[in-house]
């Protein structure tokens, strides 16, 4: 009888129930909400499903993130900035820079959306974060998960990398919820109904030269951005050259999705209750939201200014796509515009600021690294 009692006691002590806290239960509930949003609502499921599942796993079995645990080694690839760079290569292989080349003014909209990063930077300083931590937190405003992880790693902010990455990817996923109210509040019905002229055709030579020229210029000015910009443009060169179809398909499909699984689950697994449910994390999440909202607003406001300067030829809604959540932010611009006029097609116009935002966020990250003397 004692053997049975001891066996049952050991089994009970080894179960997750023995160490489960209220915080763990809260985080498990949050993970389930994220899974619901990803599966039932379709909010960026490629990102949200692995992140939410990593969150679920670590709050049931914390040792999975300890040294020797599976996701510990996945996260090391984040810390070494390997996975963010590979993600950028996959993004480049899937991205058409044609709309940006056809309408170079889109660069200004992508730049304006970076305003949220600097707003969050000074906000983080005011909240008591040191300058490097503030820089790592503020990059969330670019709505670019890989760049957020990359910069946090380079600035030595691995202790807050988890909350930063989760906030960045969560806001990327929630673009369809966060952006529309801001876009509608800052524009009139007439502005939202503006139809833009069709973009000019872009030659193959232009598309081939673009990644080469951007890599040379940006890397010469900010060499520290080479891992991100270089991989982004390499992937795009695979796509546009047309001579390495196998590499383009691998970078944009198999490799990209493998990296998303590794990165997503490891990022989600940083959200144990002990690490996530504290004042510092809440500040980071709040600052990220402020940065994202300011970035969206700045893009729309510059879009309004450009609309006025061009005599009503630019729909201000495309300015919101300047945050680098590709292609979700561009789709939101299209959706909000179509609500006013179903015959209005803004998607390709919005893709210009959208891909410009990817470049812009990487440049801002490189600027921070240069300021802090990171090589």
Essential attributes:
375 residues, mainly alpha, 72% helix, globular
**How would a textbook summarize the main sheet?**
none
The parts where pLDDT drops under 50 for at least 5 residues are: none
Shape: globular
User: Approximately how much beta-strand content do the residues carry?
Assistant: under 5%
> Number of helix segments?
21
Distance between the termini: 66 Å
Please report the total strand number as a whole number.
0
Question: Mean of the pLDDT scores?
Answer: 90
Rg over alpha carbons: 22 Å
Oligomer: single chain
The succession of helices and strands, N to C, reads HHHHHHHHHHHHHHHHHHHHH
* Computed structural class: mainly alpha
Percent helix range: over 70%
Lay out the secondary structure.
Blueprint: H1 2-14, H2 22-39, H3 45-60, H4 70-79, H5 82-94, H6 98-102, H7 106-112, H8 115-126, H9 131-138, H10 145-154, H11 161-173, H12 175-186, H13 189-192, H14 204-221, H15 226-241, H16 245-252, H17 254-268, H18 273-276, H19 279-309, H20 328-340, H21 347-371
Helix pairs in contact: 2-3, 3-11, 3-17, 4-17, 5-10, 5-15, 5-16, 5-17, 7-19, 7-21, 8-9, 8-19, 9-10, 10-11, 10-21, 11-19, 12-19, 12-20, 14-15, 15-16, 16-17, 20-21
